[in-house]
Q: What sequence folds into this?
């Protein structure tokens, strides 16, 4: 009899912590949002190239109205509310990116 | 494997059919295809549909369509591969006949898109994105297309106006097609001024969702010769997949599943790209057409847009595209588009395309794309040699 399949991916892979910083690889402004994102629109959506290499899809947050973005802009990860499943529904939190803040 | 032919064609106009139901659209196209083939029924029905559950609260569309088309008792089920569902259903039908498992198949594409509107429509559409890593961040299909387009323009230093000829061509051909959703010409220069959907993607850049159904009947090529005067052979058929999430692609601007499925379909047909007389590309966005032309080998990376300059993609050009208006002007009845492409290419190869006719069309390539290249199905169709 074959051994039960291990579904715990973490047990088979190495844990790695990303720096959380990267640059904008491409970006757009979503003016026609799906349900659940109406309050946030218009919002900036980007492909972020992490310093370690991989690309991620995420919103760019903490921008002033009409603040221009450019490919290559440095960004850092922050935790934000992504969406709410209706007025009494679950609030979903996750990652967004903002411009790298000046460090003291 | 035996050779497969298309012996019957049916299609409804594409548009906002407020007064027609999903089942009625399916039945109209199905009956037209049976009449065209001179058959009363088929052995099996494969349906291409993407959003029946999301738009119309309806699954089991295979059984529903069989019932309303009068195909009582036949094997019937729907095939789902995102926006490529129509191409996937054609692939399923092709395999069933080619294998000898069945003698005749109907491949039906149907979508009733106008039943949901506004942000609910966009949310319904979003189920074909990567739910955990794209849609959860507020991504939409036009927004992801915009990410591709901006990166393309940045890497290859291409201006927005370079994409305009694709939409102008689609509308020029759509104007001649009585079943097209948009029959207006696009004025040169209007593209850059169109309302923005997700910068740099605008309204004149992206195909409009519409309602519609299309159907083809498939039989073995040997049998087809006795049934109809002008069978169209399917000489190449191939599917391929790529990462669902755009950000997981090895090279963002390389549609690898387009490359794989095109190469396999052409190899199976035993032809080179130069022999292709017309290409029905999945022009949901102009950037998708450009990237598909490059991955399919019709242009080098960064040069796909050049093909559309100077009328090269018109009905009398070197590679006619979107010959009945494509998704952009004929309209995009999402899961049905792959079957519309088959109907349109077959009309071209029969010489029955009317004012949309490509002169001396003998070989057509049609390509159905799910998302931005995650699921791709390519077919080579050939008329009389």
A:
């Amino acid at each position: 009899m074959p051994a039960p399949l291990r579904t715990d991916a973490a047990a088979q892979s190495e844990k790695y912590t990303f720096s959380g910083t990267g640059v904008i690889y491409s970006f757009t402004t979503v003016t026609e949002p799906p349900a659940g994102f109406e309050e946030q629109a218009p919002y900036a959506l980007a492909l972020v190239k992490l310093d370690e290499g991989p690309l991620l899809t995420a919103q760019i947050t903490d921008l002033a109205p009409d603040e221009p973005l450019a490919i290559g802009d440095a960004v850092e990860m922050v935790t934000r509310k992504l969406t709410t499943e209706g007025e009494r529904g679950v609030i979903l939190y996750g990652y967004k990116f903002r411009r790298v803040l000046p460090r003291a | 494997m035996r050779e497969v032919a298309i012996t019957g064609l049916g299609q409804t106009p594409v548009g906002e059919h407020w007064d027609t139901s999903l089942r009625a659209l399916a039945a109209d196209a199905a009956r037209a295809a049976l009449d065209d083939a001179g058959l009363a029924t088929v052995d099996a029905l494969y349906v291409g549909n993407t959003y029946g559950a999301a738009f119309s609260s309806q699954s089991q569309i295979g059984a529903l369509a069989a019932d309303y088309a009068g195909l009582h008792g036949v094997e019937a089920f729907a095939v789902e591969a995102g926006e490529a569902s129509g191409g996937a259903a054609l692939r399923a039908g092709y395999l069933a006949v080619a294998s000898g498992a069945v003698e005749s198949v109907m491949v039906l594409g149907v979508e009733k898109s106008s039943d949901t509107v506004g942000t609910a429509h966009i949310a319904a559409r979003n189920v074909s994105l990567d739910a955990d890593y794209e849609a959860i961040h507020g991504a939409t299909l036009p927004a992801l297309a915009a990410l591709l387009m901006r990166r393309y323009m940045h890497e290859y230093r291409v201006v927005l106006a370079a994409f305009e000829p694709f939409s102008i061509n689609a509308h020029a051909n759509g104007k001649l097609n009585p079943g097209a959703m948009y029959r207006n010409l696009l004025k040169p220069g209007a593209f850059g001024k169109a309302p923005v959907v997700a910068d740099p993607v605008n309204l004149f850049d992206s195909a409009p969702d519409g309602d519609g159904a299309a159907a083809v009947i498939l039989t073995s090529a040997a049998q087809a010769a006795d049934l109809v005067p002008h069978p169209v052979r399917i000489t190449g058929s191939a599917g391929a997949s790529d990462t669902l999430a755009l950000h997981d692609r090895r090279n963002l601007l390389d549609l690898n599943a387009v490359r794989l499925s095109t190469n396999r379909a052409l190899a199976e047909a035993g032809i080179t790209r130069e022999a292709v007389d017309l290409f029905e590309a999945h022009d949901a966005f102009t950037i998708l057409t450009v990237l598909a032309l490059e991955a399919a080998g019709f242009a080098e990376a960064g040069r796909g847009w050049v093909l559309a300059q100077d009328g090269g993609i018109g009905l009398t050009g070197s590679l006619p595209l979107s010959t009945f208006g494509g998704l952009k002007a004929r309209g995009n009845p999402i899961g049905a588009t792959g079957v519309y492409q088959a109907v349109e290419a077959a009309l071209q190869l029969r010489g029955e395309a009317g004012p949309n006719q490509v002169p001396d069309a003998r070989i057509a390539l049609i390509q159905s794309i799910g998302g931005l290249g995650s699921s791709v199905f390519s077919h080579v169709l050939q008329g009389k040699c």
Q: What stands out?
A: The first strand of chain A starts at residue 21 and ends at 30. Chain A has one domain: 18-99. Chain A is about 5% helix and 40% strand.
